[in-house]
Amino acid sequence: MADATVFQPHRFRTAARHYLAGRPPYAPRLIRLVAELLGLRGKDRLLDLGCGPGLLAGAFAPLVGEVVAIDPEPEMLRIAEATYGGAANIRFVRGSSFDLSPALGAFRLVTMGRSFHWMDRAATLHLLDGMIAPDGAVALFNSHLCEVPDNAWYARYRELLRRYAESDTAHARHHDGTWVRHEAFLLDSAFCQVDEVSVIERRQVTVEQLVDRAFSRSSTAPDRLGEAVSATMAADIEALLRPLAIGGVLTEVVASSAVLAKRP
User: Fold this and answer.
1) b/e string for 158-197 if b means 16 or more Cβ within 10 A?
2) pTM above 0.85, yes or no
3) pLDDT tens digit string along 14-58?
4) pLDDT tens, residue by residue, 213-256
5) Which runs of consecutive H residues, i.e. helices, occur in the chain?
6) What domains are there in the chain, each with its CATH number?
C-alpha cells in the first residue's frame, strides 16, 4: 500500500510554542487504561516516536523504566525537555522514523501522538517489528471533539481554520477523500491485532487557548501564514468565539483515544 507522505522535519518549528497551551491533553485516565491493558511494568522501555513537546513521554515516564523520546524538530525537543526533563528516566533524541535502528534497543511499547500520519507508515511498522519485544505493542494516540451540544461552537471554528489552511497541500491531502486510515496499515503489518480504547471528558477551554490551538497546527502555523495573516486569523477567532464564551471560557467535550496494535 503506497503512502504519499513527504517528510518535512521542520514543519512544526513555529507551531511548537503553541502546542502545550492549545492542544487538548490526552486524558490521564486513558494513559492508565492503556498501561493496564498492555500490562506495562516498571522495568519496561518505551519509545515515543514523534514526541513533539513530550505529552506522552511525560505521561508514561512514571509507569516504565525508561522513555526514549524522539522528534526531528529541535524546538519541540527544547520544549519537551524544559517541561518534562525533570524525569530522570526520559532521554530526548533528535531524529525521526527514518532514524529507527536496533541500536536504540528493544521496547515494550512504541507510542505516537498525532505523528504517524507524517511518516512512511508501512516502512515504519516494518522497522518497528525488529525493535518491539514479542509481547510489545504500538499505540497511536489522538483526540477529537465529539458531536454533542456542548461543542456546537466547534463547527464554525473548524471552518474558519479550514479557510486559512486551504493552501496547505499536506492538509488538503489528509482531507481529500483519498487518505488511507492508519488501521489499514496496521492490519497489513506484523501488528495486525488491533483494538481501540477511548475516554470522553467535559473540559473548559479559553478563547486564548483556542487561538494557540490554531497556531499549533502545521497548516496554520505562524511561519506558514506570515505575520499579517496570523494576526488576522487570531482576530477572526476572537471575533467568532468571544461572544459565545462565558467569562472568556467555552465548554468542550473531548474524546481521547488510543489504537493499540499487537502481534497475533
Assistant:
1) eebbeebbeebebbeeeeeeeeeebeebbeebbbeebeee
2) yes
3) 999 999 999 988 999 999 999 999 999 999 999 999 999 999 999
4) 999 999 999 999 999 999 999 999 999 999 999 999 999 999 99
5) 16-22, 28-38, 55-60, 74-84, 121-129, 154-165, 169-173, 182-187, 207-215, 222-225, 227-241
6) 16-262 (3.40.50.150)
